Automatic annotation (TrEMBL):
Gene3D superfamilies documented for this protein: P-loop containing nucleotide triphosphate hydrolases
Gene name for this UniProt entry: yciC
GO CC terms of this entry: cytoplasm
Occurrences of domain CobW/HypB/UreG nucleotide-binding (ranges): 3-180
Protein name: Putative metal chaperone YciC
Pfam families for the chain: cobW
Lineage: Bacteria, Bacillati, Bacillota, Clostridia, Eubacteriales
The organism of origin for this protein: Oxobacter pfennigii
PANTHER family: COBW DOMAIN-CONTAINING PROTEIN (PTHR13748:SF62), COBW-RELATED (PTHR13748)
Length: 205
């Protein structure tokens, strides 16, 4: 079972990325699309419109009682086990709340559930990075430090010099992840989406 944990501070653009990932996985092979379930924690976030996703055959499991890495970790594990048993998807995409620590979520899942492969993608807001860095440094560091992929979003909203500064700053927290620049006003390139997802095999569960 593949699980992608989407992290990033409030307003960074996680929901937009999740929707693009879902559409990409549906469109890659329309005759036999991937079976994907999206787990969303909507506290403090704009919720994913399940009508958008239902058109391409995806279910959204919402969790509303708090941050997935602390107050409802038990519920999270039960939800994932239930999804594995009853839906048997190829992939679970989990959008965490903006104040969650993705690696904590990964540890909870891997300690509680056998035969899962968790991957972390964090989305950063290039436009607000400097403004957020000082008051939110510890949170941002903990969100980014164990990410497999980091998407530096909203690069269309800053100049090239600022982008270089943002890149250098983000890499002080994690210099081993794959880094990609994405725009808030243009679709994400399919090659980037492939790297975010990693290797996915249909019917692997």
């Amino acid at each position: 079972m593949k699980i992608l944990i989407m992290g990033g501070f409030l307003g960074s653009g996680k929901t937009s990325v999740v929707i693009q990932l879902a559409k990409f996985m549906a469109g890659e092979n329309p005759d036999k699309p991937y079976k994907v379930v999206i787990i969303e924690n909507e506290i403090g976030e704009v919720g994913i419109d399940d009508k958008i996703l239902s058109k391409i055959g995806y279910k959204v499991e919402g969790m509303f009682s708090g941050c997935v890495c602390c107050t409802i970790s038990g519920e999270l594990v039960l939800n994932v086990l239930d999804i594995m048993k009853n839906m048997n998807p190829d992939y679970i995409i989990m959008e965490s709340t903006g104040v969650a620590y993705p690696n904590n979520i990964k540890e909870i899942l891997e300690e509680s559930i056998k035969d899962i492969d968790c991957r972390i993608c964090c989305v950063t807001d290039a436009k607000r990075w400097k403004r957020l860095l000082k008051p939110m440094e510890l949170l941002l560091k903990d969100q980014l430090k164990n990410a497999d992929v980091i998407l530096i979003n909203k690069v269309d909203a800053i100049d090239s010099d600022t982008l270089i500064e943002v890149d250098e700053s983000v890499k002080t927290f994690n210099n081993t992840a794959q880094f990609f620049h994405v725009s808030a006003i243009e679709p994400i390139d399919s090659n980037i989406l492939t790297q975010v997802l990693g290797q996915v095999e249909k019917g692997a569960v």
